[in-house]
C-alpha cells in the first residue's frame, strides 16, 4: 500500500492480498496505480500477442470464434469489428446491478489480472481500467449470468462501458449511457485491439473480487460468533448454573490441533477475562450442553474454512487465469483451463455448510437462554398487574427466538450444493462449469442470515445480563459489548430496528475488541 494523501494501491508484479482488494473496493476515494514493472510485463505480454497474430498461427479467440466456433477462423480484416461483437454478445447478464463496492472489486480484480502478464492486453488498456476506478466510473453490472467458467457477462458489462456502450450509474445513482459516463469522467472510449475483447471478459473477476468482500465479512462473523458465545456463557452461568470454562482451557485446546479451534477458545477466554467466570465455582455444572462445550470445535472449523477461502482467493488474484494464456517465459500463447476456479467455488460451498453449523449452535444456545426469560416475564406480569412495574420498559421486544429459528432454517436451506447444477453449453464443448458466482451469491445470503442470528443471541444474552444486574462482574470484553447494547435496548426500538442497530454496534464493537487486543489471526 503506497502512502499518499489520497490512499493508493500500487500494483506491481508482487503478490496482492485479498484484504487490499477489499479495502480499495470499499473505499471509492482509493486510487490504483500500475508501477513500471507491471507495465513492462504487460507490454512484453502484448508483444507476444502481436507477433503470434502476425505469424498467422491460429489461436483461440485471437483469430478464431469462441465456444463451439473455436475452429472457425476470423478474417484479418474483420478482427477489429470482431472485438466489439465479442463484447456485445457477452453483455447479456440479467438481474439487479452490483453495488459500487462490488463493481469496483470486479474492475480492480481484472486490472490485477492484466498485471500478471497472462492476458496480452496493451498497457494503455490496463491504464484505462485503472482510470475507470480513479475517476469514479460505476458500470451497471448485472448480478446473474455467469456459470463460473469465466464471469463473462459481468466482465462484458464493464467492457461495454469501456468501449462507450452499455450503461453506468452517475453520481446520483441514475442509469446513464456508458458513453456519457466516460465523457463525464473525461475519458475517451477504448478502441480494442485484436484479442483484447476476450482478454477483458474471460476471467473470474466477479467471483474473486466480490469474494474478497465476502472474506472480510466472514472474518468479522468468526469473531462475532465468539462474542455471542461468550455472552451466552455468562448468561447461562447466572440463570442455570452453567458456564463451565474448562472446554476452553489451553490444556483441552493443546490436546487436539484443529486449525482455528485454539483461536476461538483463546478469544472466549480473553473476552471473559477479569470476570467472575474465571473464578472456580463449586456449584458450576460439570458439563454444559454441546452448543457451549463444543463451540470451539464448531467455530474453529468455520475459521479454518475462512482461512481456506483466503488461500483460494490469494491463488486466484495472483495467478493467471487467462485463456489463451500468454506465457511470457516461452513466448507462446497456450490454451488451457485456468479460468475454471474450482477450488474457489468449493470454498464458497463449504463455508455455507459451516455457517449452518455455527447457526445450529447459536440457535440452541438462544433456546436455553429463553426459559429464565419466560420465568422473568411471569414475574414482570405479576408486578405489572399490581401496578409495581412498567413491563414495556423491561421486556426484550418480541419473541426473537422465533426469528432465530427462521434464520436457522434459511441457513440450512442455503447449505445445499450450488456447484453441481450447471448444464452443458456451447454444443457440449463447455460441458462442465463451477457455478462459483451462484455459490458466492448463496454465501452472501448465508452471511446475512448468520450475522442476524448471532446478533439475536448477543441481544438476548445482553438483555438477561442487564436484568440480572451487576452483582458479579462481567468479563472485560463481554462487559464492553453489553454496555453498547444496553444503550440500544434502552431506546426500546421495534424488533427490526433493534436487530439492525445492534448489528451496527456489534460490527464496531467486535472490530475494536479484536484489533485492540491483537487477536486478529487472519
From TrEMBL:
Class of enzymatic activity (EC top level): lyase
UniProt superkingdom: Bacteria
Keyword Repeat assigned: no
EC number: 4.3.1.3
Keywords, in A-Z order: Lyase
GO molecular function terms listed in the Swiss-Prot or TrEMBL record: histidine ammonia-lyase activity
Gene3D superfamilies hit by this protein: Fumarase/aspartase (Central domain), Fumarase/aspartase (N-terminal domain)
InterPro entries: Aromatic_Lyase, Fumarase/histidase_N, L-Aspartase-like
Protein name: Histidine ammonia-lyase
Species: Paenarthrobacter aurescens (strain TC1)
Lineage: Bacteria, Bacillati, Actinomycetota, Actinomycetes, Micrococcales
Amino acid at each position: 500500500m503506497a502512502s499518499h494523501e489520497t490512499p493508493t494501491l500500487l500494483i506491481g508484479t508482487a503478490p496482492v492480498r485479498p484484504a487490499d482488494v477489499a479495502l480499495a473496493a470499499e473505499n471509492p476515494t482509493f486510487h490504483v496505480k500500475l508501477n513500471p514493472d507491471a507495465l513492462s510485463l504487460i507490454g512484453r505480454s502484448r508483444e507476444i500477442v502481436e507477433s503470434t497474430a502476425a505469424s498467422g498461427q491460429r489461436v483461440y479467440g485471437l483469430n478464431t470464434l469462441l465456444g463451439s466456433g473455436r475452429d472457425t477462423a476470423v478474417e484479418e480484416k474483420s478482427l477489429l469489428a470482431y472485438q466489439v461483437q465479442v463484447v456485445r454478445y457477452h453483455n447479456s447478464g440479467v438481474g439487479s446491478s452490483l453495488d459500487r463496492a462490488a463493481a469496483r472489486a470486479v474492475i480492480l480484480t481484472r486490472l490485477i489480472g492484466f498485471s500478471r502478464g497472462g492476458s496480452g492486453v496493451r498497457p494503455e488498456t490496463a491504464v484505462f481500467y485503472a482510470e475507470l476506478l480513479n475517476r469514479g466510473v460505476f458500470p451497471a453490472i448485472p448480478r446473474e449470468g455467469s456459470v463460473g467458467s469465466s464471469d463473462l457477462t459481468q466482465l462484458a458489462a464493464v467492457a461495454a462501458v469501456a468501449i462507450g456502450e452499455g450503461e453506468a450509474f452517475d453520481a446520483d445513482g441514475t442509469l446513464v449511457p456508458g458513453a456519457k459516463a466516460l465523457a463525464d469522467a473525461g475519458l475517451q472510449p477504448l478502441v480494442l485491439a485484436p484479442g483484447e475483447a476476450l482478454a477483458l471478459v474471460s476471467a473470474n473477476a466477479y467471483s474473486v473480487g466480490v469474494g474478497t468482500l465476502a472474506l472480510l465479512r466472514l472474518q468479522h462473523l468468526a469473531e462475532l460468533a465468539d462474542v455471542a458465545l461468550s455472552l451466552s456463557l455468562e448468561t447461562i452461568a447466572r440463570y442455570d448454573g452453567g458456564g463451565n470454562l474448562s472446554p476452553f482451557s489451553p490444556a483441552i485446546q493443546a490436546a487436539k490441533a484443529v486449525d482455528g479451534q485454539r483461536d476461538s477458545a483463546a478469544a472466549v477466554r480473553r473476552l471473559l477475562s477479569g470476570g467472575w467466570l474465571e473464578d472456580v465455582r463449586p456449584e458450576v455444572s460439570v458439563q454444559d450442553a454441546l452448543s457451549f462445550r463444543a463451540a470451539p470445535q464448531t467455530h474453529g472449523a468455520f475459521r479454518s474454512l475462512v482461512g481456506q477461502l483466503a488461500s483460494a482467493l490469494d491463488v486466484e488474484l495472483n495467478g493467471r487465469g487467462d485463456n489463451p494464456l500468454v506465457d511470457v517465459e516461452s513466448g507462446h500463447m497456450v490454451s488451457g483451463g485456468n479460468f475454471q476456479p474450482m477450488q474457489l467455488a468449493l470454498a464458497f460451498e463449504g463455508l455455507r455448510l459451516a455457517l449452518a453449523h455455527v447457526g445450529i449452535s447459536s440457535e440452541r444456545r438462544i433456546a436455553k437462554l429463553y426459559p429464565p426469560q419466560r420465568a422473568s416475564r411471569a414475574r414482570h406480569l405479576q408486578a405489572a398487574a399490581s401496578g409495581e412495574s412498567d413491563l414495556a420498559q423491561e421486556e426484550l421486544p418480541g419473541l426473537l427466538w422465533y426469528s432465530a429459528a427462521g434464520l436457522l432454517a434459511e441457513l440450512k436451506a442455503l447449505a445445499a450444493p450450488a456447484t453441481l447444477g450447471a448444464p452443458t453449453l456451447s454444443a457440449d464443448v463447455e460441458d462442465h462449469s463451477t457455478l462459483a458466482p451462484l455459490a458466492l451469491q448463496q454465501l452472501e445470503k448465508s452471511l446475512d442470515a448468520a450475522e442476524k442470528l448471532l446478533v439475536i443471541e448477543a441481544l438476548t444474552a445482553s438483555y438477561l445480563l442487564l436484568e440480572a444486574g451487576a452483582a458479579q462482574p462481567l468479563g472485560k470484553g463481554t462487559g464492553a459489548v453489553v454496555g453498547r447494547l444496553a444503550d440500544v435496548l434502552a431506546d426500546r426500538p421495534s424488533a427490526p430496528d433493534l436487530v439492525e442497530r445492534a448489528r451496527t454496534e456489534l460490527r464496531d464493537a467486535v472490530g475494536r475488541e479484536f484489533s485492540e487486543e491483537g487477536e486478529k489471526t487472519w
